[in-house]
Amino acid sequence: MSNLSISNVSKLFSTTLAVDDFSLDVADGELVCLLGPSGSGKSTLLRMVGGFEMPSEGSIRIDGEEVVHLPPEERPTGMVFQSHALWTHMNVFNNLAFGLKLRRLPKAQIREKVEAVLELVGLGGYGTRGVTQLSGGQQQRVALARSLVLEPKILLLDEPFASLDQHLRERLREEVRDIQQRLKITTLFVTHGQDEALSMADRIVVMRDGKTEQIDRPDIVYREPRTPFVAGFIGTMNLIEGVVQNGVFSKAGYSTPVPVADGPAVLAIRPEALELTVAGENAQGHVHRVTDYGTHGLVDLVLLDGTRLKAMVSHPDLFATGQGVSLAPKAIAAYRDNVLIHRVALGKETAALRQLVDA
Amino acid sequence: MTARPVSWVQPSRRLTGLLLVAVPVLLFAWMTIWPILSGLTTALTPQQADGSRPLSFDNFVTFFSDPYSLANLGITLWTCLITLGLLLVICIPLALYLRFAQGRLATYVQTMAMFPMFVPSIILAFAFIRVLGPNGMADLLLNAVGLPKIRSPYLTPWGPVIGLVWDNIPLTVLILVSGLGAVSNQAVEAARDVGAKPLALFWHIILPRMWTSVAVVVSFTMLGLFASFTLPYVLGPASPEMMGPFMQRTFRDLRNPEMALTQATITMVFCIAFGLFYVRAVARNRGN
After folding, report:
1. Helix (H) or strand (E) holding A231
2. Do B192 and A99 touch (CB under 8 A)?
């Protein structure tokens, strides 16, 4: 059983607050992704857990034991770095065996452990190879194996796939997830790739400017973003700035019921939740471009005031550039002052209400 | 339309290239290769009483059978090895500090480490005499607090060692810091992550990555020390003496250019050995 508890951790670099009062509990065997743009503090946070940075304040506990004052070499964590950080003067076997040798394990046991973990990452028989002879993907597997062979309580992954091509990245993240679930190892994973976070994580922590924006399951983060930042950062999102008056949100000829107090609001609609219908004179916008991706199409449309939106359609051939369209969102969320004020999946009833509003 | 054959333009370009390298190559041949061959020929063809110059190793036999010459070669090797050892002991920690430390103090330390580079050897020698020589500053300070005088290293074999160590610190630190650039922060962090404490980190991760720069330091320093003259001449003992002052005295005071060339040839053989060590280290580095 290994769990990680981060409580009220902050990190101040000179005058820059990199992490601001961050708290998170990671349960045993859970994989949590820290997701955010560059400079959001996710790597700093990971490095504080690994012992490479000292928090300015707060506490980090592993299995209830405070580790803030322990140097990296004494922490029960294993870190996989973005640049692999393999030691090029050692072969694959020695890269993996180094940590075990420092722990003065018998040679036979070291060999057994190294070979087992090489098999685990699919590199059985690669022990005598020089690390520079391996491909990027193989090097990253060696880096992962080097951490796993020491059986750390917490595995820390710092954008491990960032330097790999898209195809390899997709394959490796599946493999890493499989290994993590097989070993049931508690994992903290830093990435700025939403695909990685959505496909691998048990929970996602969306970070911005050193603070937590949202901590939730991937499906909830995607479908029910709590802030406009999360809505815009995860996946593609149409964000329409408009005004609510008498329970109706309006923007350049488009309106929809939003039963909140009057005032400015930001309406968020996913492209896949935005249905389009071809319209004539009452069109709310017109098609700017249609892109056919084979499995689906993406319609780039422009509202009457020039606001650009995207809608995912199953039959892109039904739309053409310049065509007038009406918007029929299936689900909307509304934000005001960075806070969610309304969310609804628009069913038939609300569709009927919208018709009344439009009338 | 067909492309113009490359061979049409090649001869003129080749000639231009050859002309460009011809000047430095000819200068190198004239200023370096020719004196070497000339000196070697003179050393290997000692002049006989009848004026003839047959091929003979007599000059080398004379050198290696003369206890004074051997003592001079011995003190030169001793000075070089001790100086090199002290340089590595002082400069490796300094280079490690400069590579991994951050902040204003590291900048000051770097400036201090580079300072000797701008001090001419002769000024350094006189500063040494004024501080560590008989009745120098060290003696005056000790005397002021009622302590006995130091045993001055001036005019002992340790005099040139101290001066040469001081003089060679900047170049040694520069080479080592440049070599440490090959050790990435993440490689160090990865080692710490798997449990390496400072000594294991240095021995297993940092040192193997900086071997080439250590080899460069060894070869460069040994070449420089073998050829050193001012500091051994001013600070060293009159007897035995290092090869630099020995050659100069043999040539000028004893008016024996043939023997001075023999001493130079023997010095050159040692320097070639360290030169080859340098070439091997660089080749190994490129191989990696």
Report:
1. helix A228-233
2. no
Task: Say whether both A173 and A154 belong to one domain.
Answer: yes
Q: Which residues in chain B have Cβ-Cβ distances shorter than 8 Å to A87?
A: 187, 190-191, 205
Question: What is the 3-state composition of chain B as percent helix, strand, coil, each rounded to the nearest 5?
Answer: 75, 0, 25
Residues A169 and A279 in one domain: no
Residue among B186, B192, B204 minimizing CB distance to A72: B192
For residues A163 and A82, give the distance between their C-alpha atoms in angstroms, rounded to a whole number.
7
pLDDT tens sequence across A295-318: 899 999 998 888 899 999 998 888
Residues of chain B with confidence (pLDDT) below 50: 1-2
Average pLDDT over every residue of A344-348: 64
Among all residues of chain A, which has the CA nearest to that of B285?
A: A89
Structure tokens at B98: 């400069």
- Closest residue in B to A155 (Cα) is B193
Domain housing A323: 236-358
End position of a domain, from candidates A167, A193, A228 = A228
> What are A27-78's pLDDT values in tens digits?
999 999 999 998 899 999 999 999 999 999 999 999 999 999 999 999 999 9
Please name the residue of chain B whose CA is at the shortest distance from the CA of residue A156.
B193
CATH number reported for the structural domain that contains residue A269 in this entry: 2.40.50.140
Instruction: Name the residue type at position B95.
Output: A
Instruction: Give the CA distances from residue B250 to residues B111, B226, B244, B247, B259, in Å, rounded to whole numbers and listed in that order.
Output: 40, 16, 10, 5, 7
Distance from CA of A203 to the nearest CA of B (A): 25
Together in a domain, A75 and A160: yes
| E strand or H helix that includes residue B233 | helix B230-235
Indicate if A59 and A156 belong to the same structural domain: yes
Cβ of B193 within 8 Å of Cβ of A88? The answer is no
Vertex A150, ends A144 and A154: CA angle to 5°? 75
Quick one: A152 and A260 in the same domain? no
Cβ-based contacts under 8 A for chains A and B = 62
Distance CA B59, CA B73 (A): 15
Q: What is the nearest CA distance from B170 to chain A, expressed in angstroms?
A: 28
Q: Total domain count for chain A?
A: 2
Domains, chain B, with CATH or none: 57-117+157-287 (1.10.3720.10)
- In this structure, the answer to whether residues A220 and A250 fall within a common structural domain is no
Query: Is the same domain home to A221 and A275?
Result: no
φ, ψ dihedrals at A331, nearest 5°: -150, 135
CA distance A74 to chain B (A): 7
Report how far residue B125's alpha carbon sits from residue B229's, in angstroms, rounded to the nearest whole number.
12
Say whether residue B214 is in contact with chain A using an 8 A CB cutoff: no
